[in-house]
User: Fold this.
Amino acid sequence: MKTYNLKLTPLTSFQSIPSSDTLFGAICWGIKRLYGEEKLLEILQGFSTNKPKFVLSSSFPLLQNEPGTSVAFYSKPINQGLSSKDIEEIGRTAKEKKFKKAMVEVITKYKKFKKAEYLSESLFNDAVNGMPERALFEGYLSDKIKPTGSMLMRDSEYTAIFAEFDSKVYKASTVQKNYIDRLTMSTGEEGQTFYQQETYTSNIFNFHFLVMTDDTEFLLPVFKYLEDKGIGGNRSTGKGRFKIEIMGEKVLPNSSNSKTFASLSRYIPQADEIEWESDRNFYEVFPYRSKVDSEAEFKGEDIWKSKVMYLKEGSCLEAKVRKECYGRIPVVKEIDGYKIYQNGLTIPVFGNFGGIS
Assistant:
């Protein structure tokens, strides 16, 4: 399958960054609305028999300013982190400071550095080609690598993007809401307040995600449908509106001699596709329980799916065999005979992460 890079331009605030499972659910609803239930079931059957119609990455930041400078980001590959010996050696290089003070400063900065979730594409390519965590952190200490939010980028990229723009490109806020009684069209005597997380972005902040498919013509109407419908939570209140554009075909920086890959999606592995005893595996597991999109078909039903265990984007794993995609889509709910699936397929990027080939 070919890989395409798509741009998501936020038109409103949104509840959360569209992850691979959120995009998968939105696209499946779009297929059902535009092509019918029979076509959707045929495509879902293909996912279950290792013949996926498409595979998605999660969304990652994309900074673009008016002069046309563009910096795309990907998940920072997960690794074992720096050892105490590495930290001590870095602390001893600060000769102008007392050792104890230098160590406190290095440790404090490393804690901030570890919170970064995304690398600019050029730094991500360096990581694919074996740049170790220590080299990246030393670049951060020397200001050759700069942070903005949870993103890390080269100094030259930072200067080109933010020469005339504020570096605060997004803001997450907790917003108070009121329940509305649809019979009385009022909030009632008690007010019925609740709180939700919303994210607001500047004009230069966008997202991009990857689609692996051989049939973009089939998906184009679905993307137009999602522009009108929205993606993610709170669509009924006007949130989660995005403009969707195909930016072109994308060639990922895969190393030809490695079986270790970084996951670009939320990933549910098949039991026999990963070398689980390998010391090259570095990953984060998180439990996840989501709701079925409660459109007309499922109103009044229990819409909570069974919990799944995801491997986070950026997880690095050694595969038994190189393939163009990994993972599975388990059934996590049945409502009135309808099987509800959870997307756990991932797009891999093969590389020598951490200098391990």
Q: What stands out?
A: The first strand starts at residue 2 and ends at 10. The chain has a mean pLDDT of 90. The radius of gyration is 22 Å. Residues 283 and 315 are 4 Å apart (CA to CA).
